[in-house]
Amino acid sequence: MEGVEVQRPLKLHFIPFLASGHMIPLFDIATMFASHGHQVTVITTPSNAQSLTKSLSSAASFFLRLHTVDFPSEQVDLPKGIESMSSTTDSITSWKIHRGAMLLHGPIENFMEKDPPDCIISDSTYPWANDLAHKLQIPNLTFNGLSLFTISLVESLIRNNLLHSDTNSDSDSSSFLVPNFPHRITLSEKPPKVLSKFLKMMLETVLKSKALIINNFAELDGEECIQHYEKTTGRKVWHLGPTSLIRRTIQEKAERGNEGEVNMHECLSWLNSQRVNAVLYICFGSINYLSDKQLYEMACAIEASGHPFIWVVPEKKGKEDESEEEKEKWLPKGFEERNISKMGLIIRGWAPQVKILSHPAVGGFMTHCGGNSIVEAVSAGVPMITWPVHGDQFFNEKLITQFRGIGVEVGATEWCKNGVVEREKLVSRDSIEKAVRRLMGNGEEAKNMRLLAQEFGEKATQAIQEGGLSYNNYLALIDELKRLRDLKPHD
Predict the structure, then answer these.
(1) How far is CA 175 from the centre of its chain?
(2) Are residues 209 and 296 in the same domain?
(3) CB neighbour burial string for 277-296, b if at least 16 within 10 angstroms, e if fewer
(4) Vertex 134, ends 132 and 139: CA angle to 5°?
């Protein structure tokens, strides 16, 4: 998105939630506004500001600044520097970080009252942002990292009283068709009560805001879905993505997120030695942890399928004192000797996902169906094996498999409360191997999915280029925000 002229730039304040999956795409959107000359301030905590600064492009740095507010570590009983959901693997610490994020309300309000912007763009996890915008008499746009498909699906469930309430149990599970939705979507069970409550709160926050921003492109969600949402809610939606494609240079793509242990050149060098579409990329995001038993089943299935792979295994934080042997006890005996270097790579920790997915050798992606991962895979034209774990991921799976037909389900049915709890059900090695063979094989189904995924990848690229839907949405949103600013009476 280049060449946009700015006359009297907008002053915009962004408030991302303290988790990588929320911060990175909203920071990308902030960077997009800044690179076109608008005055952008991203408000976050000190340790999160450090990681975001690393990925700030030179084009945007002149117009974007980071304002830090101290994280209330003592109030929530956390050590200094633990300020992101991605820095923990236990539920209690995650809850403390969430509570700390909610306590940022006061310092952020004090900052904005002294220097009010033309518009607040906040994560929908912060319900108080709407009140703050109302107090300052400016619009608030909300962002949450979900696809519009998923948001509309949840809206339909809420309207038809199909989310869990206090009166029904978490064990309700029977397959049902989602009513009053533009597409035929079947769910096998309802989300847990704690998630249902969170989703309701988040969508109430969205509906109280001026409009919704989506890190996606309209062609993936579909025009019917957009019309359905705007008609049923009376709220405008702005598709501005995929933000991952705005990061054009190799360096920017590599630095989008945390630093990885594996040298990026080593990773790309290995991929360069593989055939086109031959490699399966496996990654479950930054806050999903599988048990040793489940990892063992995965390893057996991957080896049995015979396809080259890159497998990202998150490090178990808080277990740094374990010996290497204890850390690797989930690997079948001799697995690395038989597979590593020639057949595959195991990356421990973080990986340059956007760059890996865009490599021609990658022909499939086994994913937890996080919102960012799905958009990044679709943008790269890569079909998926879907393995949802918690949150919105089971809804996202339906977008990829039932609606768009660019993925196969591995058969995960256990809807967990978060990404760090121990699962009760194992996905068997047979189910995993079957899904890998379906996606990575040479059958008609695999070929059709690959072609369809590539078509969506091309549409994603077109969307952010001049004349594309996301590009035009960006221009129209700028005009709308300027109109609202100019309507506001001056003191």
Answers:
(1) 26
(2) no
(3) bbbbbbbbbbbbbbeeebbb
(4) 95
pTM beyond 0.85, yes or no: yes
E-state strands within 186-293 = 186-187, 211-214, 236-239, 279-283
Let me know: does 141 contact 210? Beta carbons within 8 Å: yes
pLDDT in tens, 49-108: 988 887 666 556 779 999 999 999 999 999 999 999 877 767 788 899 999 999 999 999
Greatest CA span in the chain, whole angstroms? 73
Which residues fall within 8 angstroms of residue 358, CB to CB, at 6 or more apart? 253, 380
Both 154 and 262 in one domain: the answer is no
The answer to whether residue 4 is domain-embedded is: no
**How many angstroms separate the CA atoms of 283 and 367, rounded?**
6
Q: What is the pLDDT of residues 332-377, one digit of tens each?
A: 888 888 877 778 999 887 788 989 999 999 999 999 999 999 999 9
Q: Is residue 3 part of a domain?
A: no
Q: Give me the catalytic one of 13, 36, 38, 123.
A: 123
The SS3 assignment for 356 reads helix
Catalytic residue among 13, 22, 38, 228: 22
Read off the tokens for 96: 């403390």
Token pair of 9, please?
A: 């730039």
Half-sphere exposure of 211 (CA within 13 A, CB side): 19
Task: Please count the structural domains in the chain.
Answer: 2
Same-domain status, 301 and 181: no
Q: Which two tokens stand for residue 52?
A: 């975001």
Range of the domain at 58: 11-246+465-487
Catalytic annotation present for 479: no
Query: Is 6 inside a domain boundary?
Result: no
Q: Are residues 71 and 193 in the same domain?
A: yes
For residues 81 and 194, state if they share a domain: yes
Taking the C-alpha atoms of residue 437 and residue 30, their distance in angstroms, rounded to an integer, is 40
Structural domain includes residue 2: no
Q: Identify whether 67 is a catalytic site residue.
A: no
- How many whole angstroms separate alpha carbon 157 and alpha carbon 99? 27
Structure tokens at 214: 């989506």
Q: Where are the beta strands (DSSP E) in 107-182?
A: 119-123, 140-143, 176-177
